Amino acid sequence: MQNENQLKEIVKEKYGEIANQSLQQNLSSCCGATSCGDDMYSIMADDYSKLEGYNPDADLGLGCGIPTEFAFMKEGDTVIDLGSGAGNDAFVARRFVGEAGKVIGIDFTESMIHKARENAEKTGFNNVEFRQGDIENMPVTSNKADVILSNCVLNLVPNKHKVFSEIYRVLKPGAHFSISDIVLDGELPNDLKQAAEMYAGCVSGAIQKKNYLDIIKEAGFEDIKIQKEKKIHIPEEILSQFLSPEDVKLVNQKTGIYSITVFAKKPSKDDRNCCEPASGCC
User: Could you tell me if residue 279 is inside a domain?
Assistant: First the structure.
């Protein structure tokens, strides 16, 4: 597998391509990243179309859950969406926070930021903004957010300890996150782990569910709970591009690939005295 910088470049390149595709094209692929032939099917994405605040121009079908359903957002909140893409979750969040609130989307793919800003301009909202940046080093001051959202993004981050540390820093004391992500129960075959396309497709970058939850706990969060869980089935047409027939059967029978939506809270009293990332603490 490539190093962290190489993995980030793979993700940036793939999602730069995806930014210019339609929802229909992306739903026919694994997180929009790899071709699945002519059949049109959604592997991970949930249907946003009936939600208030839904903006079809911002929906690229790249999620694996609907974290806004579980995020306990309220009027006046400051909400940050990590890996905001074309702005789908950010615009839904804006319906909850209203005119008095603020929604900030962060994405490190330039074409996604451009698309999201175009979509924001069409809405006329003056309290939804998009910032280009790496969520391992967020362009946000400490203790800023009431709620942090993310949808099928953290599995693409090589250093998950760092990003959860950043989430901790940016949340206000007593604030919380709701994150939908891909996790594993059982091992993936090595060929699948090494496939760059499957990394960008939100699968081979996923870690064991227990390890994922342990990282959240180690970052200092409390009240950790899984709000929703669903099993993901990767079609054989995709797996067979990377695996032998025997390994395809092994993945389908022995490995659990799951979408989870997980909640956790930053303690009201923060004894860690976290500061800005440039200082090197936390």
Answer: no
Does residue 265 sit in helix, strand or coil? strand
Question: In 3-state terms, the chain is what percent helix, strand and coil (to 5)?
Answer: 35, 20, 45
Domain interval for residue 54: 4-269
Q: Which of 49, 29, 50 is nearest to 39 (CA)?
A: 29
Radius of gyration of the chain measured on its C-alpha atoms: 18
CA gap 39, 117 in Å, rounded:
31
Question: What's the token pair of residue 150?
Answer: 């993310």
How many H-runs (helices) and E-runs (strands) does the chain carry? 10, 7
**Which position has the higher pLDDT, 29 or 190?**
190
Burial of 233 (0-12, 13-18, 19+ CB in 10 A): exposed
Helix (H, G, I), strand (E, B) or coil at 116: helix
Q: pTM of the prediction?
A: 0.86
Residue 129 forms part of a structural domain: yes
In a domain, 278, yes or no: no
Closest to 202 (Cα-Cα) out of 1, 15, 9: 15
Cα 122 to Cα 125, 130, 240: the distances in Å are: 8, 14, 42
User: Which amino acid belongs to residue 124?
Assistant: G
For the segment 41-61, the average pLDDT, to the nearest whole number, is: 84
Write the pLDDT tens digit of every residue in 70-114: 999 999 999 999 999 999 999 999 999 999 999 999 999 999 999
* Mean pLDDT within 147-155: 95
The CATH number linked to 20 is 3.40.50.150
